């Protein structure tokens, strides 16, 4: 189908005022989304369109498209950050696990679903390929489903499939899948990964956040045995872990022998591994983030990131320097699930400092990411904080009163910031109604 024909077909199916959703990150159907924004004026027919914004890995959405498109969503990561900076993204401050329920209830409206699918199998079923997440709820509510069939999308096992009867328009993909390849981990990330790997036991089930750091943790686990997978995001590092023999899912207490994920965020290597892999299933957010499922999983190690953590364990994962950077996401769900899991590890990992700025050839000292007061919202309450990990060590906050939390957090801050944090701690604890207790620094 040529560009003119595709634009005409989209105009016939999409109405002015429609709210349009698609898979986030690597699951974006580029042929459809690029056609939508390129022909948005003709498709909107003098009205406006709404687009839900998730994690971004492409440059499809741009601020100048706000002449026709209203952007709403839960994430402003990657290229979508420019929408937030321009004040064009209407943030939905919801736990990621709540999205399917809000969609099915009609609170978050859905009219049109654009999906990227695999070629059909012998039974005529198109796999959702790289993603389940909140898409099954979107498909349940959409008036119109438009599918892009991509031969490079793996056929993956899951709970939801599409047939020709479900789809109003099917087009052939004109672009390959989005690749998400990670760079080599830094020395800081490697140090953090070693601290985390030293806490994870054989037989643990892994949940990983997004970024270089989770991939570094996976690389540090190749010597472990009988690890399992139950995660929202799955990256290339999980393939290497499986090939090392460490990932067998054998000791999982839920879905024994099978790895569970929500979205594949990696390269062609990950897609090849996932294709018709009987040991991998993609499931909806209502399952991957289900607190009961997580609590029943033996030794769940939940490893997520943050922008900053304060001295009492409050976590900001959304705003840096006054700019919306991320989303509430699923960290709170996984931290609570790991806390309830027998032998579980609720972990937040982050470098002790932000990257330093470079001016006239000189690099300045990076700001501390262990802070006395958060510069953004509390994405995760201190009551849900577990283990906070930086390159300087691990602060296990579970069961600690505020005064001892403060000391442990100062111990894992960058040495050049500890004196200032120590001074600020007295005022912080007075505000909390607690006394500062002198606790020897960690060796």
UniProtKB/TrEMBL annotation:
- Keyword list, A-Z: Hydrolase, Transferase
InterPro entries in the record, alphabetically? AcetylCoA_hyd_C (IPR026888), AcetylCoA_hyd_C_sf (IPR038460), ActCoA_hydro (IPR046433), ActCoA_hydro_N (IPR003702), NagB/RpiA_transferase-like (IPR037171)
Q: Name one GO biological process term.
A: acetate metabolic process
**Acetyl-CoA hydrolase/transferase N-terminal domain ranges (all copies):** 17-166
Coiled coil, from the record: none
In terms of Gene3D superfamilies, this protein maps to: 4-hydroxybutyrate coenzyme like domains (3.30.750.70), Acetyl-CoA hydrolase/transferase C-terminal domain (3.40.1080.20), Glutaconate Coenzyme A-transferase (3.40.1080.10)
- What's the domain of life for this entry? Bacteria
What the entry lists under SUPFAM superfamilies is as follows: NagB/RpiA/CoA transferase-like (SSF100950)
A Pfam family it matches: AcetylCoA_hydro
GO MF annotation terms: acetate CoA-transferase activity; hydrolase activity
Keyword Transferase carried by entry: yes
Positions of the Acetyl-CoA hydrolase/transferase C-terminal domain:
266-425
Keyword Iron in annotation: no
**Family the entry assigns:** Belongs to the acetyl-CoA hydrolase/transferase family.
Per its record, how is this protein called by name? Acetyl-CoA hydrolase/transferase family protein
**Organism the protein comes from:** Cupriavidus campinensis
Q: What does UniProt list as this organism's lineage?
A: Bacteria, Pseudomonadati, Pseudomonadota, Betaproteobacteria, Burkholderiales
